[in-house]
Request: fold
Amino acid sequence: DQQVKQNSPSLSVQEGRISILNCDYTNSMFDYFLWYKKYPAEGPTFLISISSIKDKNEDGRFTVFLNKSAKHLSLHIVPSQPGDSAVYFCAASLTDSWGKLQFGAGTQVVVTP
Amino acid sequence: DTGVSQDPRHKITKRGQNVTFRCDPISEHNRLYWYRQTLGQGPEFLTYFQNEAQLEKSRLLSDRFSAERPKGSFSTLEIQRTEQGDSAMYLCASTSQGLIATDTQYFGPGTRLTVL
Reply:
């Protein structure tokens, strides 16, 4: 069963505006969450992560928010740049699961001029 | 380049043939993972090694699949008697063992398998 869900397969945003990507999970035991970015013909690249003991983590233009009660996390990219056009995957992990990641299906982001 | 490398990048084979993929992790990383990604989906966990020991296998890994990491460095993933449903991108990732199991995994570029 799909325990990590990204319900928006695509997102189009203008350059300079904010991109908001959403992710929902069903397993309340997940305690670590990550976002990966993937360009065509390349492997996923780590972007940002957050532990379940936090509700926000920021790294430059990227901020991840975690709402444990809603089992929801989001990634904010501001300002969006053309190089941000890629597929973004949300992933979740359990500390005692050897680091095994469970991924969502991904959201294709297109940043337009 | 000290990233994760995978070989070959593309493999086209006929149904029923055996294929083998190789992954070279980042040199100091003792944890290695294999994932499979099909079109429109995120990567799915297949198996995990800590050094040379295979510690977990997904139920997705049928008996036609076998993975090894003989010296705790590179790893191979073999698929016997390939089926069209095996067509996918096979991704390898590595990380170093830290205080927690959730250290960042670094992915290779993947091997795209097409079974005709």
Observations:
- Chain B touches chain A at residues 4, 31, 33, 35, 40-45, 48, 50, 55-56, 91, 93, 95, 100-110 (CB under 8 Å).
